[in-house]
Amino acid sequence: MAKVHGKGTVIILNGSDLSTYCNTSSITRSADSHDVTGYGADDHVYQGGLKDGTANIGGIYDNTAAASPKAVVEPLIGQTVTLIRRPEGTGAGKPQTSVSVLVLNYVETSPVADMVTWTAELQKSGAANDAVQ
After folding, report:
1. How far is CA 39 from CA 34, 43, 45, 47, in A?
2. What is the mean pLDDT of the chain?
3. Where are the alpha helices (DSSP H) in the chain?
4. Contact 79/71 with Cβ under 8 angstroms?
5. Which of 23, 43, 94, 108 could form a disulfide with 88 if both were Cys (CB 3.0 to 4.6 A apart)?
6. Are 99 and 128 in contact (CB under 8 A)?
7. What is the rounded distance in angstroms from the CA atom of residue 121 to the CA atom of residue 97?
C-alpha cells in the first residue's frame, strides 16, 4: 500500500466543499462496551454494543467568502447533515466516507501570535458508508 499525503483531502459538509478552508480532519469510530462479567470471575468479560463515532474538521478562519466555514457550519449547529470525507481527493476509484452527522459545535480560536482558526465537532448519526467514488 502506498503512502498518501493529506493535502489532497476533500471535506464536504451539507453539500458545501470546505476543503480550501480545512487543514485538519478526522473520523473516529467506536463502539459501546458492556461488562458481562459473572460472579466468581477474576477478569472482566466484555460484550460489544452499538457502534458510534465522531468527526472533527478545522482550519484557518476566512472572513471574506460567503462559503466560509463560519457562514456554512455555524448555522448547522443542532442539525443532522451529510459529511463526505475523501482522504485521497476526488477521482474515480478513490475512497470516500459518507455519513450523517449532528453538528455539535463551531469554535473560533484567536491566539495572540498566530492566525485565527476554527474547528467543528460532529457526532455520527447512523451507519457510515465507506465506498469508492
Report:
1. 15, 10, 11, 16
2. 96
3. 69-73
4. no
5. 94
6. yes
7. 17
Three-class secondary structure of residue 19 per DSSP: helix
pLDDT in tens, 117-131: 999 999 999 999 999
Q: How many CB atoms lie within 10 A of CB 23?
A: 14
Q: Which three cell numbers stand for residue 70?
A: 463560519
Task: Domains for the chain: give ranges and CATH numbers.
Answer: 6-132 (2.40.30.200)
Using an 8 Å Cβ cutoff, are 9 and 22 in contact?
yes
Q: What is the pLDDT of residues 87-112, one digit of tens each?
A: 999 999 999 999 999 999 999 999 99
Report the distance separating Cα 63 and Cα 60, nearest Å. Answer: 10
pLDDT exceeds 80 at position 33: yes
d(Cα 105, Cα 58) in Å, to the nearest integer?
A: 11
